[in-house]
Q: What sequence folds into this?
């Protein structure tokens, strides 16, 4: 069952989602050479609790931390550690917050110092693909229109879509129906209606799409060792169009706030 949210519930979802967006902005700035991913995790947990929220990931199926910090060939679910970031790394940061009974969930991939042009291209195309997907989150569209738009954009640039993890509905639970793959034929799956809230999260590899899970039971890495990027927003489907909830200010209805340039998961295995 897909849970639709009332306007009052959507308003209550805002604080968790705005905090997620603010945190990601802070973590982006904090991700410098020499900083460890555990440092970033601690910063995130302190901030969430100071704002009266709860880390959504900590304890979820035993996940041990507040953020997922996935470096380079790590796709998602990298566990924060004493590994220090080095110049040239790309770092995917995923964070979820629960506040007032509702969840917010978003992710970005950020550069650590100067990065290669290939890495920058991968990040840009991945973020653009997220916005292509978000643009499909309209009343009357189908769930698979989102993934189709993501896949088209990504493959046109020679990158590949991870299949094993998917986006998801979100609300009073972090993972609700429907699952949202980042690939597929258009016109399939449930029809989107007003009040649905979706976490759309393309995970995109520079090389081949296959991933494997490391012995820690969490970290997903590319099988071929190529770089991977991940961007995610929590988005509501409204009569006026998609509204991104994970923004620092809160966007006007219908406004898909695109970053600079053009613009610019999961559960096959859960999260
Ligand atoms: Co998610």
A:
């Amino acid at each position: 069952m897909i849970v639709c949210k009332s306007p009052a519930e959507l308003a209550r979802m805002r604080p968790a989602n705005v905090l997620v967006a603010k945190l990601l902005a802070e973590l982006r700035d904090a991700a410098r050479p020499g900083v460890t991913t555990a440092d970033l995790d601690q910063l995130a947990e302190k901030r969430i609790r100071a704002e009266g929220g709860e880390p959504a990931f900590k304890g979820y199926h035993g996940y041990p931390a507040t953020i997922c910090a996935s470096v380079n060939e790590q796709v998602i679910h990298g566990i924060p550690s004493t590994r220090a970031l080095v110049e040239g790394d790309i770092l995917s940061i995923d964070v979820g917050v629960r506040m007032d009974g509702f969840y917010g969930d978003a992710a970005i991939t950020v550069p650590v110092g100067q990065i290669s042009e290939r890495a920058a291209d991968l990040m840009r195309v991945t973020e653009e693909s997220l916005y292509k997907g978000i643009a499909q989150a309209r009343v009357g569209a189908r769930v698979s229109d989102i993934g189709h738009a993501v896949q088209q954009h990504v493959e046109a640039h020679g990158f590949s879509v991870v299949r094993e993890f998917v986006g998801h509905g979100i609300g009073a639970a972090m993972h609700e129906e429907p699952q949202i793959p980042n690939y597929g034929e258009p016109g399939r799956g449930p029809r989107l209606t007003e009040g649905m809230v979706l976490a759309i999260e393309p995970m995109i590899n520079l090389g081949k799409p296959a991933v494997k899970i490391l012995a820690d039971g969490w970290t997903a890495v590319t099988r071929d060792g190529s770089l991977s990027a991940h961007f995610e927003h929590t988005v509501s489907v409204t009569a006026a169009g998609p509204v991104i909830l994970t923004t620092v200010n809160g966007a006007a209805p219908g406004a898909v706030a695109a970053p600079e340039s053009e613009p610019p998961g999961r559960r096959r295995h859960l999260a």
User: Anything to note?
Assistant: The CA atoms of residues 13 and 145 lie 25 Å apart. Confidence is low (pLDDT under 50) at residues 260-271. The first helix runs from residue 7 to 30. The helical segments are 7-30, 37-50, 117-135, 143-156.
